Amino acid sequence: MLENFIINQNESHFAALSAINKNEKGIVFIVNEEQKLVGVLSDGDIRRYLLTDGKLEQSVFVSMNRDFVYLTNSTKLDSPVASKEGVNVIPIIDNNNYIVDIHLVQKQSFFPIAIPDLQGNELKYLNEAFLSTWISSRGLYIDTFETEFSNYIGSSFGVSTSNGTCALHLALLALGVGQGDEVILPDLTFAATVNAVFHANATPVIVDVESDSWTIMPEDIRAAITPKTKAIIVVHVYGQPCNMDEIMQIAQEYNLSVIEDCAEAHGATYKGKLVGSIGDIGCFSFFANKIITTGEGGMCVTNRPELDEKMRILRDHGMNPNKRYWHDVIGFNYRMTNLQAAIGLAQIRRIDKILNQRQLIEDSYRLHLKSSENVVFQQNLKNRNKVVWLAALLVTNKNRDKVLRELKDIGIEGRPFFYPLSDMKIYKPFARKCINSKAISKNGINLPVSQKIDESVLQKLKDCF
Ligand SMILES: *Cc1c(COP(=O)(O)O)cnc(C)c1O
Predict the structure, then answer these.
(1) What is the pLDDT of residues 54-84, one digit of tens each?
(2) Whose CA is nearest to atom 5 of ligand 1?
(3) Burial class of residue 97 in the structure, from the number of CB atoms within 10 Å of its CB (0-12 exposed, 13-18 middle, 19+ buried)
């Protein structure tokens, strides 16, 4: 097929059109006597040339574009030129400028809810970790990732874990939560939050969320406190920080521990402080659809050295750090691998860019739905600087599931909000009265933000609502 894309600079425009006719891609690449790539002509270029008195039998040397887009083998995957507007066929050349392949840019027609962005140093670091043979849970990348991630959050310590759920479990155990203790948490969250409480043999107490922020309601926390209450898990749901001043105030009054579930809120701030650094322990997830990823993975951050030490021991089979194979407590294997940490390090080093990109895409949804009366976007509230995990909005005056179907028809994968925990049989007995969460969940839609949405698709967005 390659030969249908290449002609010599001495050949005629007629020969160029014949090649284009065969390759059906509307373009030919032009080489010199040494077979080096020197120019490009599209069918449009030839048309314009002929309309301005060009001759069909004249050689393409006179009209070819000498300034063109190309890729080399090493830039093939991640080059921004590969997605340059209007360029659909790109030659790939070797060090001698010989054309070795053709890259066809796929026109995007479906936008899935999440795609991990791995286009920085992820592969490079992963490769280095792999070649170092430190592929298990020790290695330079683990230490560096823990340091750089906790520094970013503004916490003194970072304990990486195999996933976000065991980060929550570790946090509960380190805070001494166990049998007979009650842990207050919000109704609107992913089930891992409540499951971790069961893993710790404690009793969840599920409370309602605020109607404006969709995060746990401080008054309902207060109302749910009993002598057995030991901790609160607050969830910065869909990137929205909880009302941390009031929550910390309640925790102080009743001597309760606060765990921040930050699985959906890397980089969000409350009164200028990053979420995760405000409570006793902040727990993060690096699942593939989260803001930054390690494939599977998680992290606990804390400012308290004794919690850091407890979590490190529990993460590593409960082994005494000063006496190998001596166990004082029953622990777990909750360690992250050096390979995961390598990916995570590349991710945390460019988190600002990732967050910015997500924000821009949310902004484009807001812009195109500005005049729609059936949409309420997740709010930007005073003192809370939310981040965009997935774009999040409520549908009003229209059936949510119908909107989801219409979105699918235009190529956007929307996702319904989490079901309220209190709707599910296994969690219902632990829930107090939750009204707001049910209303929010029923009408909520998440939209993808990991990839720029085509303008043509955005134009159709409004009709879905
Ligand atoms: C994703 C998520 C978790 C769990 O993280 P995993 O890494 O998948 O175990 C916990 N809490 C919330 C709110 C989440 O969104």
Answers:
(1) 999 999 999 999 988 888 877 755 555 555 5
(2) 164
(3) middle
Type of residue numbered 464 = C
Whose C-alpha lies nearest to ligand 1, atom 2?
263
Distance CA(112)–CA(415), nearest Å, equals 10
Q: Is the pLDDT of residue 205 over 90?
A: yes
Nearest to 102, CA basis, from 9, 40, 14, 58: 40
Question: Which strands, in side-by-side order, build the sheet including 99-104?
Answer: 71-72, 89-93, 99-104
Question: 272 φ, ψ to 5°?
Answer: 85, -5
Residue 235 tokens read as 């969830």
What does 45-93 look like in DSSP terms, one character per residue?
HHHHHHHTT--TTSBGGGT-BSS---EETTTTTT-GGGG-TT--EEEEE
- In the residue annotation, 433 being an active-site residue is answered as no
DSSP 8-state assignment for residue 462: G
Give CA–CA dist 369/365, Å, rounded.
6
Q: Separation of 201 CA from ligand 1 center, angstroms?
A: 19
Running DSSP on this structure, what letter comes out for residue 464? G
Q: Is 122 in the pocket of ligand 1 (CB under 6 A)?
A: no
**Cα gap 284→260, rounded to integer Å:** 9
Q: Which of 198, 216, 261 to mutate to test the pocket of ligand 1 (most atoms within 8 A of CB)?
A: 261
How many CA atoms, within 13 angstroms, populate the side-chain half-sphere of residue 8? 5
